[in-house]
């Protein structure tokens, strides 16, 4: 259902009441939020977007690979080098349990996938993405969007070489490109496109505070003009002072006194009022979640340890085995833990204390800045990513929510095709996954880049229209197009997309087609 930009008076008043109950930061903030009510209307269904951000710049060249003869030959020629080859092995190559941990020989061959539109080529996934191989080929709940990156307008190699052609600021910089992916501005941005989506839909939620939720700390992607992101931990809401029974030092009186202090202000200074409002909002939100969230020990989510410390848990749903040739260990996947609390929040969305119809979530996995030791480190990260996404899909299936939740990956940037010895450098475009019951899975959406061989006398790739120096991908799909396709499914009207995705008007294809 599309979100109608002309909200009803009822939705306007409901938003005002919800913000008042949760303590808007100031009269100005309340007025801005009420203005936002005129841009959204409650929807009768539930939908959520979940962003998995891969911090550090994921090497998409080793995540989704073309294996047709010409592409594979170029891949092997470029990535097979001393001292440590980072070229993965051909499909069907048996894993060698005696080889070094994380080495291509130890990993075995890449895993073939069969996209519905193979574009006359063949493709495969990283050897540790077997859980996603079946989700792509068999379940058809996983799609690949190739060569996505921030763009201001379509850009060819010739245009990129022209310094007057518009391009995103501060390319190849971690902080700047993390912010650009999330907000379309370099470091220092304060509003992200997930938050902008939240601004449009918050009036349809009973409590605006539960519109944009992070399980991974502060994320500019979730910050809107009116919507504030709400942060949770792996165990749920972060309490402010009192325990689950409303006590401090075993005393309800002490807890009540603490709440009176932090909810009030001694004077009329605006900063004091804002601090009191934030404290009140935090306390009220935690109280609402305390009764709405099912315990992590519920069969839907796996078995949590009595201590609440997932690092000590022996739950196979949260355990991953980085190397399938070694026994299962008690190593736990932090990304799966974050997705578990997201699943619990989604399950609680229909609770009378929450009343959420549209939500955006942010989770993350770090460690992708693999300038060296890439073979071992990237394999471990692929194992974590594949396991966590399959875990989340399974939990959503048990909850009956697969069709209502769409999960997608994002990252600072892709990496170079060339190796710097045993790693890669900063790139630009990268491939990304989209997962969910409403995803047209089992296919690629966008042109997969041509991979060439570097020039004999330098690291340019003149044989490929899609590769810049060192083989960095020149994006052919913009983040605006990628995000707008998700936003349409989320319920945002076409007329509102331009306010969320500032460069969308520069692209003719504004719906990539990967959502039903």
Q: Would you kindly provide a written description of the structure presented here, covering whatever features stand out?
A:
The protein is α/β, with parallel strands linked by helices. It folds into two domains: 417 residues, no CATH class; 60 residues, no CATH class. Helix content is 33%, strand content 11%. It is built from 14 helices and twelve strands. A nine-stranded mixed sheet has the order 8-7-6-9-1-10-11-5-12, sandwiched between helices. Strands 2-4-3 form a three-stranded antiparallel sheet, covered by helices on one side. β7 and β8 form a beta hairpin. α1 runs antiparallel to α2, α5 crosses α12 and α11 runs parallel beside α12. The longest helix is centred in the last third of the chain and has 26 residues. It starts with 8 loop residues before the first helix and ends in a 16-residue tail after the last helix. The N terminus is likely disordered.
The order of strands across the largest sheet is 8-7-6-9-1-10-11-5-12
Q: What is the N-to-C succession of helices and strands?
A: HHEEHHEEHEHHHEEEHHHEHEEEHH
Q: Helix count?
A: 14
Strand content: 5-15%
Number of domains: 2
Mean pLDDT: 87
E-strand count: 12
> Oligomeric state of the chains?
single chain
* Category by helix and strand content: alpha/beta
Low-pLDDT runs of 5+ residues are 3-42, 303-313
Helix content: 25-40%
């Amino acid at each position: 259902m599309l979100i109608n930009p002309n909200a009803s008076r009822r939705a306007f008043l409901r938003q005002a009441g919800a913000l008042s109950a949760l303590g808007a930061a100031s009269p100005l903030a309340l007025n801005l939020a009420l203005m936002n009510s005129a841009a959204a209307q409650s929807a009768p269904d539930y939908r959520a977007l979940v962003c998995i951000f891969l911090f550090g710049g994921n090497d998409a060249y080793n995540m989704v690979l073309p294996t047709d003869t010409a592409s594979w030959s170029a891949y092997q020629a470029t990535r097979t080098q001393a001292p440590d080859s980072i070229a993965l092995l051909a499909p069907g190559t048996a894993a060698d349990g005696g080889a070094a941990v994380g080495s291509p020989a130890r990993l075995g061959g890449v895993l073939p996938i069969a996209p519905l539109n193979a574009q006359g080529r063949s493709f495969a996934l990283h050897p540790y993405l077997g859980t996603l191989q079946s989700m792509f080929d068999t379940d058809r709940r996983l799609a690949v969007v190739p060569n996505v990156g921030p763009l201001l307008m379509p850009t060819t190699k010739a245009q990129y070489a022209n310094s007057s052609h518009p391009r995103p600021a501060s390319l190849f910089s971690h902080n700047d490109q993390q912010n650009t992916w999330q907000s379309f501005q370099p470091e220092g941005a304060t509003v992200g496109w997930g938050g902008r989506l939240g601004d449009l839909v918050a009036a349809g939620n009973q409590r605006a505070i539960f519109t944009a939720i992070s399980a991974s700390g502060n994320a500019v992607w979730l910050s809107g003009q009116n919507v504030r992101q709400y942060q949770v931990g792996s165990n749920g809401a972060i309490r402010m002072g009192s325990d689950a029974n409303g006590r401090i030092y075993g005393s309800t009186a002490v807890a009540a006194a603490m709440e009176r202090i932090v909810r009030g202000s001694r004077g009329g200074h605006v900063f004091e009022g804002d601090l009191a409002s934030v404290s009140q909002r935090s306390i009220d939100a935690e109280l609402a979640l305390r009764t709405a969230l099912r315990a992590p020990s519920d069969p839907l989510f796996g078995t949590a340890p009595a201590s609440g410390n997932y690092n000590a848990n022996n739950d196979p749903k949260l355990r991953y085995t980085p190397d399938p040739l070694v026994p299962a260990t008690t190593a736990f996947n932090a990304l799966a833990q974050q997705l578990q609390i997201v699943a619990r929040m989604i399950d609680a969305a229909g609770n009378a204390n929450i009343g959420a119809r549209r939500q955006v979530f942010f989770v993350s996995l770090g460690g992708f800045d693999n300038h060296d030791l890439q073979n071992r480190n990237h394999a471990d990260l692929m194992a974590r990513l594949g396991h966590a996404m399959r875990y989340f899909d399974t939990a959503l299936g048990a909850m009956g929510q697969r069709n209502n939740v769409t999960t997608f990956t994002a990252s600072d940037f892709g990496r170079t095709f060339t190796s710097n010895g045993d790693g890669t450098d900063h790139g630009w475009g990268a491939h990304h996954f989209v997962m969910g019951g409403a995803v047209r899975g089992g296919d690629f959406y966008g042109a997969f880049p041509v991979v060439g061989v570097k020039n004999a006398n330098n690291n340019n790739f003149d044989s490929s229209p899609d590769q810049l120096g060192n083989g960095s991908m020149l994006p052919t799909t913009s983040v605006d197009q990628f995000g707008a396709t998700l936003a349409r499914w989320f319920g945002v009207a076409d007329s509102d997309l331009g306010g969320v995705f500032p460069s969308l008007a520069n692209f003719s294809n504004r719906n990539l087609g990967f959502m039903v």
